[in-house]
Amino acid sequence: AAELGHDEVLALLVNSGRFEVNLKDSRDRTVLWWASKNGCETAARSLLVAGSAMVNSKDKDNKTPLYVAVEQGNKAMVEVL
Fold this sequence. Notes:
The protein contains 5 helices and no strands. By secondary structure, it is an all-alpha fold. The protein is globular and about 30 Å long. The two termini are 19 Å apart. It holds the Pfam family Ank_2.
């Protein structure tokens, strides 16, 4: 859901408490990283509230969720993070 930019679906999944919010993919990208990349501000807030400690986690390209939000020019996401 995060990778495809489905903000509301991702927020529902996070709020359900039924999945690990700190998982990483093969490129070390977290759910929060993908939410940042795709402008899912609602989901990002939910992830942070749910305890996603991965806000400073870097992917294999050394990009954090904040870096990706800045790179995308997403001021709202930058403010969330």
